[in-house]
Amino acid sequence: MADMMSAEAFYQLVTARQSDRAYDTDRAVEPEKVQRVLEAARLSPSACNGQPWHFIVVTETKLREDIARSMVGLGLNKWAIQAPVLVLIVEEATKTTSLLGGLVKHNHYPHIDLGIAAAHLTLAAEAEGLGSCMIGYFDEKKIKRMVGVPHHKRLPLIVTLGYAAKEKRLKKRKGIGEIVTYNKYSD
Ligand SMILES: Cc1cc2nc3c(=O)[nH]c(=O)nc-3n(C[C@H](O)[C@H](O)[C@H](O)COP(=O)(O)O)c2cc1C
Predict the structure, then answer these.
(1) What are phi and psi of 52, to 5 degrees?
(2) Could you tell me the CATH number of the domain that includes residue 77?
(3) How far is the CA of 2 from the centre of ligand 1 (A)?
(4) Which 8-state DSSP code applies to residue 47?
(5) How far is the CA of 96 from the centre of ligand 1 (A)?
(6) Is 137 in the pocket of ligand 1 (CB under 6 A)?
(7) 92 belongs to a structural domain
(8) Contact status, residue 55 vs residue 89, Cβ threshold 8 Å
(9) Do residues 88 and 56 touch, judged by C-beta distance below 8 A?
């Protein structure tokens, strides 16, 4: 595997991925690229291999724009209407072992699973030359109704995809010394 992709290339990919909030509205995303980024999400790990996800790819203009409008609020996501593709990530039932383990350990593993799948998806998008942004702020009820997701299921995350219309930014992150300790916690 190491000869297929160098560690350096991987870290470059991680550094290059950013939340893109401006898209080239004249440039469609090739369906085969969408297929491949979804394949990356499909291969991502999940608690007990429960794979508690369903991905709804929205490309139809009117529906996509209606969904994008339902993401606007608190000064967020006005730009989302430009994105030519939206991927809605629906939380599906997981394996009983994951649910039971979560009950015992006071955790809800599917939320973690969906985040990991979204990370795979956005990194794959970067590898395909596509911009992406994870979106967690939207009218979940309204959007679920628009695409026929049953009331009792959750839709925690949406990912935008498209050709980015802005340059790369430098990452703003805490320093490694602020977030990592060895063998002991300290804040
Ligand atoms: C769970 C989650 C929800 C997010 N929701 C939004 C959102 O609603 N709108 C938005 O513009 N960005 C959203 N983001 C993107 C973050 O703001 C972004 O990842 C963070 O600022 C770091 O910047 P970068 O992705 O460019 O490295 C979200 C990211 C995550 C992981």
Answers:
(1) -85, 60
(2) 3.40.109.10
(3) 30
(4) G
(5) 31
(6) yes
(7) yes
(8) yes
(9) yes
